[in-house]
């Protein structure tokens, strides 16, 4: 029983890493209607910026806050300078542009900081606590709590605030939103800026658990995209719940299903996607879209 509890807790901790990126992907989709494949690269770049500021002697918390603010500005500039040229065109083209942006951002990080593994300092203590016989680090527990808080704030933003409703309106139908008096361009910039800031938070949370490298979040991005598909593109709660489910099921399957083991556990999210898309194409928590013709 203690082994089972330990696997579940470790899975929730790993799932929180996926969930942090998944929330940023949901935010971009809610604000622009696009899937941003560059989200992981932007998160890593912000982590490098926080690391560089901290290395100058700046307190870690202040360095992270400045990196978050800088990421908001960077995200807004990316939308204004680059993405706006493609947002009104073919969505597939815009998605390809985000893949190219991921390559560009990763390359910039590699040129500036190299490919050597760097140890990102932790915002939380590394001590462990005993939960039902399982040992969990305070850092993992704090990361999970932070993700839950961000998930709740995003849900509140999109459902209960004028800004969130404006972002959703612009993403759903920018032409109608413009006719209603909404500043479409400004809303798109805000959406990309918020997503980049959220990615910076994810980078600061994930960096201490992984070694800081340009490709640090490449694998996590795949799981995050799987979580978004499983949970629903329009549901922050669904994205986090799916990320946790992936993390827990991966751990359980790798231990209790010998035929899968550790090497093949990466297939777990893809099997889940296959099943969920057959049963519920909009995701577990997604809204079914009805189109009138």
Automatic annotation (TrEMBL):
GO biological-process terms attached to the record: amino acid transport
Membrane topology summary: Multi-pass membrane protein
Positions of transmembrane segments: 7-28, 34-53, 60-82, 94-115, 136-158, 189-208, 220-246, 266-285
Cell compartments where the protein resides: Cell membrane
Keywords: Amino-acid transport, Cell membrane, Membrane, Transmembrane, Transmembrane helix, Transport
UniProt superkingdom: Bacteria
Main location: membrane
Listed GO CC annotations: plasma membrane
GO molecular function, one term: transmembrane transporter activity
Range of residues in the leader sequence: none
Family per similarity comment: Belongs to the binding-protein-dependent transport system permease family. LivHM subfamily.
Protein name: Branched-chain amino acid ABC transporter permease
Species in which this protein is naturally found: Sinomonas puerhi
